[in-house]
């Protein structure tokens, strides 16, 4: 079993044609993952694997671990890094298996792949997604089951493997909990931010960024309410 984080940009499809802010947020997410993967030495896990899935990424550990502090701290650091663009991401943690499935491709496709994994189709080409497993499936399922909002979710059964000083709230009517990535702080979060060179906005700055987003982007009330409550933003739903 390996831990996994699925993280994607909120409102990407709705904002894609209106401005390039969604793409800049995705770029910031990619930048953050690259910085962490190249500058931070993961204890025990040794390395991470990251794969783009449209407007987001699946990040998977090399090995399983008894504690889930590393993926929780990593997710918090990345969510904060993205938030500095004025846009927000949503994330979920899960566990499962993950493997290279390219051996199941048809022989003709395997033989036609170039060094980058592309397959020529006369004047066009095919790209493939060579990895799959329950680590990806479970993380996406958790994300989809999570309510609207810039939330960081996981199954309630996993909470006993997260340090007690991380702020976690139950999501009513579900088997999920939300990690308060705005107000939770720890030495590991700070270490990842510092070592990887990530943006590290504090809770006040994050609340200010949420406030601007609330009042200028036509955000749905449900999104505001869930983010407000589960992240303790203490923002008025609408500016008067």
Order of H and E elements: EHHEEHEEHEEEHEEEHHH
Binned, the helix content reads 25-40%
The overall average pLDDT, rounded, is: 90
Question: Unreliable runs, pLDDT <50, ≥5 residues?
Answer: none
What characteristic shape results from the CA principal axes? globular
Biggest sheet strand order reads 2-3-1-4-9-11-10
Number of strands: 11
**What is the radius of gyration?**
18 Å
The span between the termini is 50 Å
Classify the secondary structure makeup into a structural class: alpha+beta
Question: Which percent range describes the beta-strand content?
Answer: 15-25%
What does this structure look like?
This protein has 240 residues and is an alpha+beta fold. Helix content is 38%, strand content 20%. The protein has helices spanning 12-15, 21-39, 69-83, 107-112, 134-145, 187-196, 203-216, 221-230; strands at residues 2-9, 48-52, 56-61, 89-96, 99-100, 119-121, 124-126, 131-132, 152-155, 168-170, 176-179. The strands form three sheets. It has a seven-stranded mixed beta sheet with strand order 2-3-1-4-9-11-10, with helices on both faces. Helix 2 crosses helix 3 (69-83), helix 2 packs across helix 6 and helix 3 (69-83) packs across helix 6. The mean pLDDT is 90.
């Amino acid at each position: 079993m390996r831990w996994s984080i699925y993280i994607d940009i909120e409102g990407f499809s709705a904002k894609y044609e209106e401005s390039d802010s969604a793409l800049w947020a995705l770029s910031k997410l990619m930048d953050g993952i690259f910085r962490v993967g190249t500058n931070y030495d993961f204890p025990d896990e040794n390395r991470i694997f990251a794969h783009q899935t449209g407007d987001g990424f699946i990040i998977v550990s090399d090995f399983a671990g008894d504690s889930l502090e590393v993926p929780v701290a990593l997710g918090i650091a990345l969510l904060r890094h993205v938030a500095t663009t004025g846009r927000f991401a949503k994330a979920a943690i899960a566990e499962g298996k993950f493997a290279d499935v390219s051996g199941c491709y048809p022989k003709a496709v395997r033989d036609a792949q170039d060094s980058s994994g592309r397959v020529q189709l006369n004047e066009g080409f095919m790209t493939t997604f060579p990895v799959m497993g329950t680590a990806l499936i479970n993380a996406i399922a958790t994300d989809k089951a999570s309510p609207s909002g810039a939330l960081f979710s996981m199954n309630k059964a996993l909470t006993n493997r997260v340090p007690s000083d991380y702020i976690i709230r139950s999501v009513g009517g579900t088997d999920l909990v939300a990690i308060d990535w705005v107000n939770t702080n720890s030495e590991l979060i700070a270490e990842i931010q510092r070592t990887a060179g990530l943006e590290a906005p504090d809770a006040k700055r994050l609340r200010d960024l949420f406030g601007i987003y609330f009042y200028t982007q036509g955000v749905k009330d449900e999104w505001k309410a869930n983010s407000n409550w589960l992240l303790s933003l203490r923002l008025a739903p609408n500016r008067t």
